[in-house]
Write a structure and sequence with these properties.
The protein has helices at 4-17, 41-45, 90-93, 135-141, 156-163, 170-175, 185-195, 208-227, and strands at residues 25-28, 50-56, 59-64, 69-73, 79-84, 107-112, 116-121, 128-132, 269-274, 277-282. The chain is an alpha+beta fold. A four-stranded antiparallel beta sheet has the order 1-6-7-5. Strands 2-3-4-8 form a four-stranded antiparallel beta sheet, with helices on both faces. Strand 3 (59-64) and strand 4 (69-73) form a beta hairpin. The chain is globular. The two termini are 29 Å apart. Mean pLDDT is 90; it is low at 89-102. The protein binds a DNA duplex through residues 1-3, 6, 32, 34, 58, 73-77, 105-106, 122-127, 166-169, 172, 175, 177, 184-187, 231, 233-236, 253, 275-278.
DNA sequence: AAGAGGCCCTGATAGC
DNA sequence: TGCTATCAGGGCCTCT
């Protein structure tokens, strides 16, 4: 489901609602997520307070009262829902879900606070929870991942270095989380359109000003997506069940066969499989 | 070393 | 109506 902007939306809404709350009960219905939920998960969480919800790239980090952390990756279809404990009908009667039916089939984890319950739902189970015992281990966990797009380390010097003498396709590089963390399949198409760069082009052929554009536009597009509440294609909703709006601003993603949105460009949006994922680009302005 | 492909899963949709 | 095939926002792996 979520790339960096969507995870950030979830983080922001969680941060408003579960800070300083103490975990009263943990129920794991299905441990078989991408990685098995550890057997001590429930005991580990119980009676601890959520101090802060942070984010790195597509990972949510729950800082707990004893300096430990719970890491959560939403995979493709992971969603978080908050409901009020005392009202059992709340799920079916409110807008937390767009469907009138309670999709509790894939509610794998429930974390209860005094008046509030956090539910983790994930049909495809590509998401996962991890216990990170302390700050050092947290740092270590992300050591091999590249900087976030907003990190000053993600700069011209950095991208020039990575692109020199490499014959990787630019799409592959931007999706490589070890190079830069947080970009996924939707935003990579949008970023490259914005830069007028063909996703198949080899990085060693890109000029310095094009690489500079990639840095600038990556930040611009991700920030704009956050501002618009993320993208809601398929099932992404924030924890209040509201949809984001950025999908209305897609220039190329899921627009195969439609006209290029650039004024005066007569191009048609094409779809192509790159890195085993669908890729959208204009056949004229991204030559 | 790049890149194609497979795999982990379920569900929505399209085509017959 | 009901079957099958294909495709999904992630990330890991292996093989060539």
């Amino acid at each position: 489901m979520p790339e960096l902007p969507e995870v950030e939306i979830v983080r922001q809404s969680l941060n408003k609602k579960i800070l300083e709350k103490k975990v009263k009960k943990v129920l794991v219905r299905n441990r078989n997520l991408r990685f098995k939920i550890p057997s001590n998960f429930e005991i580990f969480l119980k009676e601890k307070k959520i101090i802060k919800v942070k984010r790195f790239a597509k990972y949510l980090i729950f800082n707990l009262s004893d300096n430990s952390n719970i890491l959560l990756h939403l995979g493709m279809t992971g969603t978080i829902h908050l409901i009020k404990n005392e009202n059992k009908d709340f799920l079916t009667n409110t807008s937390f879900y767009s469907s009138p039916q309670l999709p509790d089939k894939h509610n794998h984890v429930e974390i209860s606070f005094k008046n509030l319950k956090l539910i983790y739902n994930d049909p495809r189970r590509f998401g996962f929870f991890q216990i990170i015992e302390n700050k050092d281990l947290l740092k270590k966990r992300f050591l091999n991942l590249g900087p976030e797009p907003f990190d000053p380390r993600f700069n011209e010097k950095y991208i020039n270095f990575f692109c020199k003498n490499k014959i990787k396709k630019i799409k592959d590089l931007l999706l490589d989380q070890n190079f830069v963390s947080g970009i996924g399949n939707i935003y990579v198409s949008e970023i490259l359109f914005c830069c007028k760069i063909n996703p198949s082009i080899k990085v060693n052929l890109l000029k310095k000003n094009e690489l500079r554009k990639i840095i600038i536009n990556t930040r611009k597009i991700l920030l704009n997506a956050i501002k618009k509440g993320g993208s809601s294609i398929r099932d992404f909703k924030n924890i209040n069940g509201n949809k984001g709006n950025f999908q209305k601003h897609f220039k190329v993603y899921d627009r195969e066969g439609l006209n290029c949105k650039r004024i005066k460009c007569k191009g048609i949006i094409k779809k192509k499989f790159l890195s085993n994922r669908s890729t959208y680009f204009c056949n004229i302005c991204q030559k």
